[in-house]
Amino acid sequence: MKVLVDTSVWSLALRRKEENMNEVEKEILNELVELIKETRVVMVGPVRQEILSGIKSQNQFKKLKSKLSAFSDLPINSEDYEKAAEFYNTLMSKGVQGSFIDFLLCAVSYNNDFSIFTTDYDFINFAEHIEIKIHEV
């Protein structure tokens, strides 16, 4: 199964030095490395944008952009945006809030039968109310 990797996992892997990680974070990094080796990683434009946003150094931005160029973006279509809106409405009716990008990731993963690899507990909360799969290490 393909795995849509959330910004939280990419940030951990690309912005933190392994020697500064705790054991759980090292396991997450190792899992990402394995998924990459197995060519199971899925990238979407909104995640790429989030990863590259907020980088002050132009040199660091270029290096990170170059690393991410190994992953092409999965196209996002109208059905994905419609499902994201449906998820938003469902979750808001249950008092569960989230970002539009998070709901879009949920929709893309749902429509393509991907799991989501994340360290963001919001997705675990979402999964209690909508049919998404969370990738486990």
Describe this structure in words.
The protein has 137 residues and is of the alpha/beta class. The protein has one domain (1-73, 113-137): 5'-nuclease (Rossmann fold). Helix content is 58%, strand content 7%. The chain is built from 7 helices and 4 strands. It has helices at 7-15, 23-37, 45-52, 58-68, 78-93, 100-112, 121-127, and strands at 3-5, 41-42, 115-117, 133-134. It has a 4-stranded parallel β-sheet. Helix 1 (7-15) crosses helix 2 (23-37) and helix 5 crosses helix 6 (100-112). The radius of gyration is 15 Å and the shape is globular. The two termini are 14 Å apart. The model has no long low-confidence stretch (mean pLDDT 96).
Walk across the major sheet and give the strand order: 2-1-3-4
Largest sheet: 4 strands, parallel
CATH class: Alpha Beta
Give the radius of gyration.
15 Å
Count of the separate structural domains = 1
**Count of helical segments?**
7
- Which stretches of 5+ consecutive residues score pLDDT under 50? none
How many beta-strand elements? 4
Q: Which fold name corresponds to the CATH topology?
A: Rossmann fold
CATH superfamily: 5'-nuclease
| Proportion in β-strands | 5-15%
Q: Please, what is the oligomeric state? A: single chain
Average pLDDT, rounded to a whole number, is 96
